[in-house]
Automatic annotation (TrEMBL):
This is Thiamine-monophosphate kinase. Mg(2+) 1 binds at residues 58, 134. Catalyzes the ATP-dependent phosphorylation of thiamine-monophosphate (TMP) to form thiamine-pyrophosphate (TPP), the active form of vitamin B1. It comes from Parvibaculum lavamentivorans (strain DS-1 / DSM 13023 / NCIMB 13966). Residues 164-318 form the PurM-like C-terminal domain.
Length: 338
């Protein structure tokens, strides 16, 4: 995001790239020595001794990953948080990030200012800063991309692969809120309780990366990822890489009060809970003898972790069962990007 000369004109009176960076983004780099105030072409980062660098990137496209009328502050926070969630699921501690913004010509400076304010709020919350990036204009939909950089003790990153038959399956927090929140925003789900509706919408717009929980799973979990595509789909990703199967007890899946209220009104919403995605909770597999350690991590971090199933042999596939052990047929297993 280093400032550099570009042709002027055709920007509808918008400040130059240099002015935007100086006004909106340079303050986000304050206090990061390797960012050089966003006045160089690259940033410098040295991980702590005996640590390795972990990198992850996610993009958000208007109309696909956020709604046109979503407040810019929440769009910024979601963009940052989904990447921090990836780091947390790998056991990494976040250190900084790179940002690419492709604005439409009609994107107002006020919208950009709100976006930058959302980033600043979360930087203060998670203790990180902007290190660089780029800002451009596009004739397509607004597109935002963020690369998060973290670090983990050497050899301790938790991968998708590594789960073993007999491992317990856990998930942090609650599942299904975000998909139900999107349905509320689209007018497809009516929630009489306004507090429940607000909770679901907030969980869609502002996921909660489990940065206090994930790093403590190093040496405890055999495999982990964050739930972005949907509980069943992401469990399938672990199974595919690990060469295992899995069985989930849907009655054990943790739900918020708002999600339970929605399911009570329409039991068919179990499809959204199992496959809606955007939860950004940590889904992980660990051996049964580490249950007490996982309970201690949950208590220490203030984040719940619920055992919801078991890893099985690969030939078993991935299945969901009810409390009586009967298989549940799910049509929607998760979000597909293509």
């Amino acid at each position: 995001m280093a400032a550099r000369s570009k042709p002027e004109g055709g920007n509808g009176g918008r400040p130059s790239e240099f002015a935007l960076i100086e006004d909106l983004f340079a303050p986000l780099a304050a206090g990061a020595p390797g960012a050089y105030g966003l006045k160089d072409d690259a940033a410098l980062f040295s991980p702590s001794p005996d640590h390795e660098t972990v990198l992850t990137v996610d993009a958000m496209v208007a109309g696909v990953h956020f709604l046109p009328d979503d407040p810019p502050e929440t769009v910024a926070r979601k963009l940052l948080r989904v990447n921090l969630s990836d780091l947390a699921a790998k056991g990494a501690t976040p250190r900084g990030y790179l940002l690419v913004t492709a604005w439409r010509a009609e994107t107002s400076v006020d919208w950009m200012r709100g976006f930058a304010a959302g980033l600043m709020e979360d930087q203060n919350l998670f203790g990180i800063s902007l290190w660089g990036g780029d800002t451009v204009t596009t004739t397509g939909p607004m597109t935002l991309s963020l690369t998060a950089i973290g670090e983990v003790a050497a050899g301790q990153m938790i991968r998708r692969g590594g789960a073993r038959p007999g491992d317990d399956i856990y998930v942090t927090g609650t599942v299904g809120d975000a998909a139900l929140g999107l349905s509320v925003l689209r007018g497809a789900l009516d929630m009489p309780d306004t507090a429940d509706a607000a909770h679901l919408v907030r969980r869609y717009r502002e996921p909660e990366p489990r940065t206090a929980f994930g790093p403590k799973l190093c040496g405890v979990a055999h495999a982990a990822l964050d739930v972005s595509d949907g509980l069943m789909a992401d469990l399938g990703h672990i199974c595919e890489v690990s060469g295992t199967g899995a069985r989930i007890n849907m009655e054990s899946v943790p739900l918020s009060r708002a999600a339970r209220a929605a399911l009570a009104r329409d039991p068919r919403l179990v499809e959204a809970v199992a496959g809606g995605g955007d939860d950004y909770e940590i889904l992980f597999a660990a051996p049964p003898d580490r249950a007490s350690k996982i309970g201690a991590i949950a208590a220490e971090s203030g984040i719940s972790a619920t055992r919801i199933g078991t890893m099985t042999e690969q030939s078993d596939g991935v299945s969901a069962i009810d409390g009586a052990g009967n298989k549940i047929a799910l049509k929607q297993l998760g979000y597909r990007h293509f």
